């Protein structure tokens, strides 16, 4: 069975994802946020060089300076990378790093 999950890219992150602020993705049941990150990078990242603007150095987690909310709740309260996605979840990524 598959789940429908929405990903939102705010605070300028939409620029590295084809100027798309929201995307609906289909993930297999049992997928975690970690799985979702890899899917987002594979399907939506326009330029592979920009991966460092979204993922940390080992490409396994979120870069420092990006807030992550799951259904408007801080992901730290939900288990971060290990959170198991549910149908209709909304995962919001907001960059707090702005150029000047």
Automatic annotation (TrEMBL):
Modified residues (1-thioglycine): 100
Record's subcellular location: Cytoplasm
Cross-link Glycyl lysine isopeptide (Gly-Lys) (interchain with K-? in acceptor proteins) per UniProt, renumbered positions: 100
Gene3D superfamilies listed in its UniProt record: 3.10.20.30
Entry's transmembrane regions: none
The keyword Nucleus appears for this protein: no
Pathways involved: tRNA modification; 5-methoxycarbonylmethyl-2-thiouridine-tRNA biosynthesis
PTM entry text: C-terminal thiocarboxylation occurs in 2 steps, it is first acyl-adenylated (-COAMP) via the hesA/moeB/thiF part of UBA4, then thiocarboxylated (-COSH) via the rhodanese domain of UBA4.
Classification via InterPro entries: Beta-grasp_dom_sf, Mopterin_synth/thiamin_S_b, Urm1
Pfam families: Urm1
Entry keyword annotation includes Cytoplasm: yes
GO terms, biological process: protein urmylation; tRNA thio-modification; tRNA wobble uridine modification
Sorted UniProt keywords: Cytoplasm, Isopeptide bond, tRNA processing, Ubl conjugation pathway
GO cellular component: cytosol
Family the entry assigns: Belongs to the URM1 family.
Summary of the function given for this chain in its UniProt record: Acts as a sulfur carrier required for 2-thiolation of mcm(5)S(2)U at tRNA wobble positions of cytosolic tRNA(Lys), tRNA(Glu) and tRNA(Gln). Serves as sulfur donor in tRNA 2-thiolation reaction by being thiocarboxylated (-COSH) at its C-terminus by the MOCS3 homolog UBA4. The sulfur is then transferred to tRNA to form 2-thiolation of mcm(5)S(2)U. Prior mcm(5) tRNA modification by the elongator complex is required for 2-thiolation. Also acts as a ubiquitin-like protein (UBL) that is covalently conjugated via an isopeptide bond to lysine residues of target proteins such as AHP1.
Name recorded for this polypeptide: Ubiquitin-related modifier 1
Organism: Saccharomycopsis crataegensis
